[in-house]
Amino acid sequence: KAGVTQTPRYLIKTRGQQVTLSCSPISGHRSVSWYQQTPGQGLQFLFEYFSETQRNKGNFPGRFSGRQFSNSRSEMNVSTLELGDSALYLCASSFSREGGYTFGSGTRLTVV
Amino acid sequence: GENVEQHPSTLSVQEGDSAVIKCTYSDSASNYFPWYKQELGKRPQLIIDIRSNVGEKKDQRIAVTLNKTAKHFSLHITETQPEDSAVYFCAASRTGNNDMRFGAGTRLTVKP
Fold first, then answer.
1. CB–CB of B97 and A33 under 8 A?
2. Whole-angstrom distance, CA of residue B97 vs CA of residue A70
3. pLDDT higher than 80, residue B1
4. Testing the interface with A: which of B10, B98, B106 to mutate, by most A Cβ within 10 A?
């Protein structure tokens, strides 16, 4: 079966712009989580969605937001981009909220 | 929230030797502890996980041990091979609450 699909794979944006990233989970998976990965900070938890509701949120400013659709696909949005937002954004899905994440390949965002 | 610490940050071993990576967690309610392997330029992949109702789990050359009293868990890789070279991440969460937090990662290098 298809894995977790993230689009786009690469993105270059200018400071102040906004960006939307997409994540399609494995078919049947209802939980989708987002992480920011940077060389210095590792994997930082952004938020988790389950049944179209945000269930958990990490320590990121309000510029980072997300949503989940009825088909479990999820999007995350970053507004007013800053240079420090440059990172690999990873999405992970699981069937329930019992663990067993599968990660996508990520979207590499570069802010210039 | 949960805080996971991981040691060492880098580890170099000779092929055939064993490697041990240790993690501690802060939330005594955490009961699910996965380990992920991330090769350069690739997505993190789940290699083994353990739940709090068991103290040890093995899968071929890989084993994980859990000490709930001390709130620490470890990854053991025996008979290391060059293809084991990667960054390894530990994580912790409560089942039913997919708020999974990751350690900072350990870069393992296996020298042939």
1. no
2. 20
3. no
4. B98
Average pLDDT over residues B22-44: 95
* pLDDT tens column, B53-111: 889 999 999 999 999 999 999 999 999 999 999 999 999 998 877 788 999 999 999 99
What is the SS3 assignment for B12-76?
Answer: EEECCCCEEEEEEECCCCCCEEEEEEECCCCCCEEEEEEECCCCEEEECCEEEEEECCCCEEEEE
Which one-letter amino acid corresponds to residue A3?
G
Within 31-90 of B, beta carbons closer than 8 Å to A belong to: 32, 34, 36, 42-46, 49, 51, 89
Do A42 and B96 count as a contact with CB atoms less than 8 A apart? no
